[in-house]
Amino acid sequence: xxxxxxxAVVALCFVAAFALSTVAQRLDNYAYDLMSARSRPDxxxxxxxxxxxxxxxxxxxxxxxxxxxxxxxxxxxxxxSPSLVAIDIILHDAGDPDEDARLERSLRAxxxxxxxxxFVGQAWEDPLPxxxxxxxxxxGHVEWSTDRLDGVTRQIPLVHEEAHQQRWALSLVxxxxxxxQPISVSTASNDVTVGNLAIPVPGGKDRRPLLIRxxxxxxxxxxxxxxxxxxxxxxxxxxxxxGVTALSAARDRLVDTYxxxxxxxxxxALAFETLAHADFLVRARDYSVLLVSLVIAAAAGLIFGLxxxxxxxxxxxxxxxxxxxxxxxxxxxxxxxxxYTPPAAVAWLCSIGAGAYQYIFVRRQLERTESERSRYQQAxxxxxxxMRTPLTAIQGSSEIMTxxxxxxxxxxxxxxxxxxxSKRLSRIIQTFLDVERLAEGQMELKRELFEAGDIVASCLKxxxxxxxxxEIQMTLENPVEATLIGDRELMEYAFYNLLTNAVKYSxxxxxxxxFCDSEDGGELRLSVQDEGMGMDSKELKSIFKKFYRTKRAxxxxxxxxxxxxxxxxQIVTHHGGHIGVTSEPGKGSCFTIVMKAQVRASGNAxxxxx
Length: 610
What we know:
Layout: H1 2-21, H2 25-38, E1 47-52, H3 54-60, H4 66-80, E2 84-87, H5 97-109, E3 113-120, E4 123-125, E5 139-141, E6 145-146, E7 153-157, E8 159-162, E9 165-168, H6 170-179, E10 183-185, E11 192-194, E12 197-199, E13 209-211, E14 222-224, H7 232-235, E15 239-244, E16 253-255, E17 261-263, H8 264-276, E18 282-283, H9 286-306, H10 309-332, E19 336-337, H11 341-403, H12 408-439, E20 448-451, H13 452-469, E21 473-476, E22 482-486, H14 488-504, E23 511-519, E24 523-529, H15 537-540, H16 551-555, H17 564-574, E25 578-584, E26 588-596, E27 598-599, E28 607-609
Parallel strand pairs: 1-14, 1-15, 2-3, 2-15, 3-5, 18-19, 21-23
Antiparallel strand pairs: 3-4, 6-7, 7-13, 8-9, 10-11, 11-12, 16-17, 20-22, 21-28, 22-27, 23-24, 24-26, 25-26
Helix pairs in contact: 1-9, 1-11, 4-5, 6-8, 9-10, 9-11, 10-11, 11-12, 13-14, 14-17
């Protein structure tokens, strides 16, 4: 049963942690960006960004001179002999006829030219036919996948299908041109391929997202359109991405994983580098995330289920470090983007749940063991205390009979006392065993009818010798005529204990009274009233606690263990009754047992037992 509860706690923690992790995308993004920043590719760039920047617009007449600037840049690039030129400027609308004619000539003269397109509204905006390349496969889309949570662009859709037309990404088309190999889709793995290069892009075939490996600023050369001739050596043989980088004219600005703002043309170049160097990152499948999280939850459960103390905490600390750091970092360096929050949240929450449960469970076990040990010691103290009186009587009587020559009558009296006290000792031992079994819930109370008056008379008779020694008068104020149902011996012990306490803690030559009262509904009230030291209200709250003794009782010199009244309360409670007490310091106490009974009408007789 405990194992089932423990497993349920761990399972509940797993479900809560996994559910929480599904809405913690921002934290996953932060972890991804941090790992990306610390994992910088060391490959040499194969591309160059030719930027139409602020200086270019300032020198060439502003944004209204966009097409002449583009024509001049293409002519200069052609002389620099790049491997290809990918333009990130949409040429969907017609402009000045002379400028368009010049631009058309420059475009036609540029080898390995790639043109952009984008989907706007309900249609694709392709280059004007006069500007479009002769091969439609050399038109690539410039769409992006920007995260709505934080505005960071971490991936690009390699394919975009709208209006029944499919377009590959500009960077992928550039790779195809650079390698002189077509783009296709593998029928076996559903990956995108360019020749023998397989690009793992899991996801729907209408998007196929590619995670971009961003480089620190400046790793890809960025050359102003004004400096093409001066830096022609850096362009030769490279893939050129030509576009606007000026803040005042750029159509698209993106935020990379470093938190830096970059232009769209720079991002296209980075996507091309990712493809060209086959430096791919693939997001882990959902089922693998679930499976790994389940294993981590099971590990946390086993750690605290099989170990305890420092070994468990140390091993769990290793599990937390593995799930929260080493696992995502290890997989990231091997090209797998494993979300950060599911394993971390599962590890932490399951560890807390399992550890807390085991701590509470072990603590309860320890408390139960300590309680059993304490109860055992209490039982031994009680038995020793209760058996002291009959053992003393037996020992004293036998010693007198051995040492002295006594008359036959006196010997008979002592023998009868030894026999009586032996039987009493036997009853005490049996009562001790019954009380122990009763405390452990292993005993079913006897369900027998007995007269309440009989046990009252028996107890008064047994206590009389103790009262006589202190010249204490004991009075039964009215007859007890009621029948109880339960265990006679236990109830006799309970009432006997109240009488002995009343005599023990009362001064000499005082009075102990026993009252009997019946109420409507068949309740019997047995009260023992003394003229002893009494108790204050604070002491009354603790009087039925085990081993509790009032300061006056301890100062009286009377021997006691403080467990008698707790046993009396336990016996009465198990019989369906209750016990109460009223007292004032210096004026005595009155203990009252209330029990269900079959009450008979009685007179108001008064009996004195001395």
